[in-house]
Amino acid sequence: MSYLVLDVGGSSIKHAIADEAYVLTEKGSVPTGYDTHAEFIETIGAIYDRYSDQVTGIAMSSCGELDPVSGHMFSGGALLFNAGTNMIASVTARCGVPVSVENDANCALLAEFHDGSLSDCTNGVALVMGTGVGGAVLINGRIYHGSHFHSGNASYFKPELDRPDDPGFAWVNGVPALIADYAARAGLPAESVDGRLVFERVAAGEAAAIAALDAYCSRLATFIFNLQLILDVEAFAIGGGISIQPVFIETLRRHVGKVFDGVTRTELPRPSIRACRYFNDANLLGALYHHLNPSR
Length: 296
Hints:
The protein has helices at residues 37-51, 87-95, 104-115, 169-173, 175-186, 195-203, 207-231, 246-261, 282-292; strands at residues 2-8, 12-19, 24-31, 58-62, 99-103, 124-129, 133-139, 142-143, 235-239, 272-275. The protein has 296 residues and is an alpha/beta fold.
């Protein structure tokens, strides 16, 4: 059997046809340039119509917090108009086939748990570094959703405990924060810098770029240390476009080691720090895994 798999993000909806061997074909994407839930559902329906004679179900990964059983969207993430709607009911009504939906960070984790960098783990965390910081938690071989389906919401973690007005971890450690830090250190206009340039400069040995990456990884390492003390997992899988850069993973591992080395009163178990195996396809593959093996 084949399925339509969808990755709903703030700027586009990626789509593909997948079979039960997790082979993706017919990949494509459409922009999410509209303002209402009805328009959004019609866009999903138009994608489905192209493949309706090939697929027996729709597996969705979506931004926003949601109940994967009922389909209720507590928030729409970047797509604010989806808040308060029921994704499963809306898509089923339009397309008439079985529909599943799961949060995008949870889908990334499920892809890695299936046969990626967390496939040997019972307990693990996926952190997806992008404009925000997506998080997902695996406990006893299953996604931990929490009591209100908000588990893993790393973007709003407040790293400065004496600042209740702290806007959250995404604002200090999303990828834009790395870019802005490098631009400031190098004396460049922020709009002239992107992530690719930062890592080109790191590879060239530029001091400002290396310092910005060190600061970024130091903050992320402290965040990982704190999560490890609470969750005691085997591994952290780090995703997002930045994780393609080996120097990022190497630098992060070094800083995680430094944080643990700084604890002298006791020996703490250290998690493995791994790059995600799947990048742009992770949410599509995780959506299919959830469709075939419901998360809850």
